[in-house]
# Entry
Amino acid sequence: MQNIYQIYAQLNTWNSILPEILLALLALSFLVIEITLPKEKHNYIPKIAFWGQVMLLIGALAYFTFSENLIYGESFSGLIKHSMRGELMRIFFLFCSVLVTYMANFYFKHHEKLSQTEFYPILLLITAGLMLLVQSNNFIMLFVTLETVTIGFYVLVSYRRLQAQSLEAGLKYLILGAFSSAILLFGIVLLYGVCGNPNLSYSSSDPMNFSSLEIFTSANSDNILVLAGAILVLAGIAFKIGAVPFQIWIPDVYQGAPIPTTAFLAVASKAAGFIVLINLIEGPFAPLRDSLVPLLSAMAVVTILFGNLGALSQRNIKRLLGLSGIAHAGYLLIGVVASFYITWAGDAVLFYLYTYMFASFAVFIVVGLVTPNDDTNQTLDDYKNLFKENSFLGGVLVIGLGSLAGIPPLAGFIGKFLIFVAAYQAKLYGLLAIAVIGVVISIYYYFGWIMEVVYRHNKYPVDKTDDELAKPEWAYVGIAPRLILGCLASITVILGIYQGMLKYLFL
Amino acid sequence: MDVITDFAFFEPLFQILDSFVGNWLQSYIDMDFAINKILLIAAIQIPILSALVLLIFGKISDKFVKNLAVIAFFIPAIIACWLWSAYNIVGSSGFAYFSDTYTGLELFGISLKLGLNGISLPLFVLAALVGLAAGLYAVYSVTDNLRHYLTLLLLMHGGLMGIFASIDIFFFYFFHELALIPTFIMIARWGGPGRRSAAIEMTIYLTLGALLSLIGLIGIYLESGLGSFDIISLRKHLAEFPLSEITEKYLFGLLLFGFGILVSLWPFHSWAPRGYGSAPTSAAMLHAGVLKKFGLYGIIQIGAPLLPIGATQWTNLLLFLALGNIIIIGFVTLAQKDLKQLIGYSSVMHMGYAFLGIVCLSTIGIGGAVLIMFAHGLSISLLFLLSTCIYKRSNTLDMRQMGGLATKAPVLAFFFIAAILAGIGLPGFANFWGEITVFIGLWQYKPILVFPAILGIVLSAIYGLRAISSIFYGPIPESLNYKLNSETSVADSKQENQNESIDLNYGEKMPAAILLVTLVIVGFWPKSISDFINGSVVEIYPKSYHTKTVSNLDNNN
# Structure
């Protein structure tokens, strides 16, 4: 034990998790700020959160782009593994967090009864947790960060505590989340048990570590306990990514949670789940390919079909987004399965996640703007004449939905294309066919939504009074949402045409 | 008698026609300016950039919007005509005006390679001309939210120009989808009755077709093992190392059905008449005239040359489906009472001839298919344009309620009759050359097949002439009051309206004239495109498709 402390003292690896530390410090500083700042000046808190994170994001981007000596390798005695993927995911989560901060700021302006000061520290801590989660190289680290994230989300989901729907969502998320954590933990314990058993060959004294676990699993890939442990771990992660059969919480929770939380849950939490999955598959679970591929393939098929068919007749916007998100999880699972065979498939998944993030946030922000006061029961009908009344919002929504549907020249197409190429190269023809069916089904609801936006409705009924004819609230969009939405839409278009960013991925 | 296998049959006739028209172009023929490749890129970029300008700058005057759009539609057309005239017959091996731009996906062998060969050149010109006509018509007729309409139309136009200029298969697909989505929005926003379901149906159908073909294209890319999406290197590689028979069969099947859905191959055609019926005119013109040719172009340029063994295995089925297009849809067209539906169905039907040309898998059949694509694109977009003109005057599309329009609007009648006759395949129009070459190819393939194909011509003559007679001749029905129902005349008082001529106005005449003149020019001077087609088809198809007289033709060139 003395030895380990000595090593830590010498290594001085704290700067390798500097972004996480800064985020956590920022989060903690809010606790001080809230007490010291007079109550009427509490509206500075979202601004501090937003700009603090923007600066962090710029710093991370600059560091990533210009730094010659990025540290790749393990730190903290193998708890954390730094990689290109980890760096990119840090930027990803910071980007998400900045956008969620903006959405939350807008949201609280229309929900003044809610106290807003607690939201931001929790958000920042979740972001820091997500960043560590995707870089974790040890099951202890993985579980601790996962729980940090999940517990944060329990609070954020039920944040609108005066409303029954939000509380219901929080309770559902809590029960199912706790359940899935238990499953995950059980899987980890099984793996720990077998890998730490000195009677088995290649057993390790550090069985939680992915590297030593990988050595062990490749030697004992037919061990039934290893397999059981792996499947239970995958089940725990499947809850995070919303894959069938662990998807049932998604529509209810998405609908009940406040829209910033929904967006964060839909994008960041899901992305983290996928990156963890890929880290595991490229690491300790790689030797279990023959058993896991059929399992994950079946999961992908059912997930794609469930998500798309469920969304087909859905008119509630948040449920629709949740169900379509399940379908996206299915497409991504194809990429995950392909990553058993093809080295670059994991990077294709990462690219898909980026395109999904830009498009999803564009859509979520517009959803938040369309009915700012109550988004829980927003339906497709709320989008009538949106393009006519406000062609900017309409145009951004069309771009976002088009990208989600995977239509060129938008980024979502490139993401799907890479997944398709990977799947074909891995000879997953059946999955490819299901994906094509899924995409065609998804056209119906995505374009059904676009249809509501752009459809030329006949003139208003004559008997309506002037008050009823008054323009809805979303007719005016301020400069800040214009800027943010414009950025998201143009990134979506540019990434669809020029994929220079990919050079960081496919090296 | 020697077997006729090629355009060589028409060579004496072409020579005569050529001596009238072609001589003044001779001086350009050997030139290949470096600037031409820049012009080719510009022809794609200008519409897209103009669309972006229109999209971003919201507060601009209507006049500026119109002028910018007219310029953006004219420049590609001028460039296309210039590239057409400067296209080098002698150097027609491979692609002229080749250029290569990196877009960040070069690790997958994808980069924006542009160029034109003899097959893509006519279609490129077609896209430019139909785009010009559709754009001019839109500028002069659309009043509801013109800026957004033109934005989408320009975006679509840019995509269309890109499809036929792409050498890279990935971008070939990419540009198609780029052109497809504006169509959906235009139908939903500016379309006619029934647009909601028609737009969704069309988009789902077309996405299904596009995705199937995308999988097929990915298949070609990966199975070839070359790591490149570029047609030229794929062609060279696959000529040396062909794929296994079973792989070719499956890949060609994917391409055939994927592209077939996009071309409204029977029985996957139901989206076409409904979609065109409710689409706004310019969108219908561009889609039926140009975008639909994407699938045929894909089979001719990519599918059949790269997968020759696969192609032969599907011809029997394709023959059956193509005859379904001609005979079954021919009879369905006969039964139509609605003018737009009639035109929509006739466009489905005429695609059958192009497919028959592909079925032959001979140089002449495929060359004929390209000619049909070119000619049909012009004539069908002319018909869609004119049918809207008729609707604006009669306020109905039901042909049973119309009659006697020729006395009120002689110019409109002239254009419409010319377009219908072109569609039937009257000599003097470009369609004639396409159909007759396909028939000759078909005769060589199986003589008996020419008879059902001829039956199709009879059917199209029946419905075409019947449409002419019921719209333009006979007494004017009492229930019908012809008046020009455009935005300008609504503002006018009724008194003025009585004296006003209801014939085609300037904004309608100009696009119609562009299309008709091109049809007639190519009809009288088919060598202007047939030489290029011939050269490229002979070059890219395996030797088994050619027969003896090909060498004679090469000597002639």
Remarks:
- Residues 1-5, 26-31, 487-498, 547-557 of chain B have pLDDT under 50 and may be disordered.
- Chain B touches chain A at residues 55, 58, 103-105, 107-108, 144-145, 148, 170, 173-175, 177-178, 180-181, 184-185, 188-191, 195-196, 199-200, 203-204, 207-208, 211-212, 214-215, 218-219, 221-222 (CB under 8 Å).
- Chain B has one domain: 7-486+498-556.
